[in-house]
Amino acid sequence: MFDLKVVVLLLIRPITSWKQKQNDMKSSKTISTSSLDVFKSQLHGELILPDSPDYNESRKVYNAMINKHPGMIAMCVDVSDVVACVNFARENSLLVAVRGGGHNGGGLGICDDGLVIDLSGLKNVRVDTTDNTVRVAGGNLWGEVDHATHAYGLAVPAGIISTTGVGGLTLGGGVGHLTRKYGLTIDNLLEADMVLANGKIVTVNKDNNADLFWAIHGGGGNFGIVTSFKFQAHPLSTVIGGPTLWPIEQTEEIMEWYHGFIHDAPEDLNGFIATMVIPGPPFPEFLHKKKFCGIVWCYTGDANKFEKLFQPVRDKKPVFELVGEMPYPAIQTLFDGLLPPGLQFYWRGDFFNELGPEVRKIHNKFGSAIPTLLSQMHMYPLSGAASKVSNTDTPWAYRDAKYAGVIVGIDPDPTKADEITAWCKNYWEALHPYSAGGSYSNFMMEEGQERVQASYKHNYARLVEIKKKYDPDNLFRVNQNIKPK
Ligand SMILES: Cc1cc2nc3c(=O)[nH]c(=O)nc-3n(C[C@H](O)[C@H](O)[C@H](O)COP(=O)(O)OP(=O)(O)OC[C@H]3O[C@@H](n4cnc5c(N)ncnc54)[C@H](O)[C@@H]3O)c2cc1C
User: Fold this and answer.
1) Is 332 helix (H, G, I), strand (E, B) or coil?
2) How far apart are CA 397 and CA 235, in angstroms?
3) What are the φ and ψ backbone dihedral angles of 87, each rounded to 5 degrees?
4) Ligand 1: distance of its center to the CA of 225 in Å?
C-alpha cells in the first residue's frame, strides 16, 4: 500500500548547488514510516525531525560557526534509548553523531543528514564517599559534576570552564586547573559503561575489556557511546587562584620567566599562560579592551605556604592581580560568563616542548594583533602528575610535551568569522614548525587524517586494531576518526 511506502526524506536542506546535491545524494537516506514508528516506539526520549517545531533550536551546538542539518535528533533519556539509536543507525546505514555537551570546536557532536544521538537527557552524578569515587552519566556537564562533588569536599580534574560536556572532554583527555596536581581527566577515569556499535552494553575497566578501557583514555568517541563514567575524586574544597596580567609588550619576557618557573614549581601550583584581551567588566575599566599576556593560577596546597611560593610571580610586577581563595566550583565557572554558547569559534592546537626565543616572538606578534575582544591563546602546562604517565599508558602520545597549546578566534558577530579564522590559522602556521608535531584532539577542528595520526603518533596503530575489533564498519566516525581500514 502507498501508505506504508510513504518515505521520510531526511534531506531537508534546500539544495543550493550541484556539488552540494552530489554530497547529499550520497549521505541522505529514505526510511519507511513504519520503521520510523517502530524506532520512535523504542525511545523514551523525543525524536526530533526536521519538521518538529524545536528542530532548529535542537540542532544548535555551542560553536555558532557550525550549522549542520541532521536528519533526526534522538533526545535519549536512558541507556535503552542509546541502544535503540545505535541499532537503528547501524541497520539503516545512517551517519551517526553523538552529542555530549555539544562544545566540540569542530562541531563533532552534530552532523548533516543522519542521526544525532543526544545524551543531554542522561544526567546523574552519584558520589561514593567510601572510596571518593563519582559515577557520572554520559550527558552531564562538568559544572553539574563540580556542584555535586563540592558538597562532599571533593573534586574531579576537568578543564577550566563548567559548561563543557563530561563525555567529549574526558574521552579526549581533559586538561585544566588540576592537571599538574592530579593529572589529566583520563588519569582519574576508573570505569565506563558503553554501548558498542553492535548494540551491546559493556562495562570497561582495567580488568574487563582492558583494550577498550585503554582506548577511551584519549581515543575520543571512536569506540562506542559512554553512558556512565566512574572517576576518582580528590579531597578539594577551596583553591587559591585567578589571573595575573602583564602588558602584551612584555609577552616574551614573561613567557621566558614562566617556562623556567612553572615546571619546577610544586605540583600544587598550576598556571596556564595566555595572550588575550580584557573585554570589559568584571575587570576594572583601566584594563578594558587592552591586550595582555596573562597567567591564570590555581593553587591546591596548604594556604599558609602560598604567599612564599607566589612571591616570584609578584616579583615580576603584574599590572593586575586578582588571585584569592575561592571554592573550586568558582574557579571552574570564572570564564563561563565571557563565553556563552552561540559565539563564533575557530580553533587550532599543538603540543609544545619549549617556549624558545622564536616561539616567544611569534606569541608577541600575534598576541599584539588579536582581532577581537574574546580571541585568545592558551598554553596548558603538562608537567607534574600528567607527565608521570608514560607515552603509551594511554593514547595521549605527548606526555613528555611541556604544553598543550590552543589558539581560538572568538566573536559573537558572524561577519567576523573570516577575520578570526585567518588570525587563528596564521598564528598556528607560524608556531607549528616549533611544535612537538600533533595536537590534543579536543583542541582540533576537522583537520584531516594526517593531523589525527600525528596527534596519536605511535599509539595510532594500536587504536586502529581496537577500532577494528569494536567498530569495524566505523559507525562512530563523526570524531577525530581512527579509521579501521
Ligand atoms: C569554551 C570551551 C572551553 C574548553 N575548555 C577546555 C579545557 O579547559 N580543557 C579541555 O581539555 N578541553 C576544553 N575544551 C575542549 C573540550 O574538551 C572539547 O570541545 C570536547 O569535545 C567537548 O566535549 P562535549 O561533550 O561538550 O562535546 P560534543 O560536541 O558533545 O562531543 C565531542 C566529541 O565527543 C564525543 N562524545 C561526547 N560525549 C560522548 C559520550 N558520552 N560517549 C561517546 N562519545 C562522546 C562526540 O561524539 C564528539 O565526537 C573547551 C571547549 C570549549 C568550547
Assistant:
1) helix
2) 29
3) -65, -45
4) 13
Q: Name the pTM for this structure.
A: 0.94
Strand blocks (E) in 30-111: 30-32, 47-48, 70-75, 96-99
CA–CA gap between residue 47 and residue 118 (Å, rounded): 10
Residues touching ligand 1 (Cβ under 6 Å) are 62, 98-105, 108-109, 119, 138, 159-161, 164-165, 167-169, 171-172, 174-176, 220-221, 225-226, 339, 442, 478-479
Atom of ligand 1 nearest to the CA of 107: 29
Give the Å distance between the CA of 163 and the centre of ligand 1. Answer: 10
Closest CA to 116 of 104, 124, 108, 105: 108
Tell which atom from ligand 1 comes closest to the C-alpha of 104: 19
Digit-by-digit pLDDT tens for the chain (485 residues) are 333 333 333 333 333 333 343 343 334 358 888 999 999 999 999 999 999 999 999 999 999 999 999 999 999 999 999 999 999 999 999 999 999 999 999 999 999 999 999 999 999 999 999 999 999 999 999 999 999 999 999 999 999 999 999 999 999 999 999 999 999 999 999 999 999 999 999 999 999 999 999 999 999 999 999 999 999 999 999 999 999 999 999 999 999 999 999 999 999 999 999 999 999 988 999 999 999 999 999 999 999 999 999 999 999 999 999 999 999 999 999 999 999 999 999 999 999 999 999 999 999 999 999 999 999 999 999 999 999 999 999 999 999 999 999 999 999 999 999 999 999 999 999 999 999 999 999 999 999 999 999 999 999 999 999 999 999 999 999 999 999 98
Per-position b or e across 209-247, b if 16+ CB within 10 A of its CB: beebbbbbbbbbbbbbbbbbbbbbbbebebbbbbbbbbe
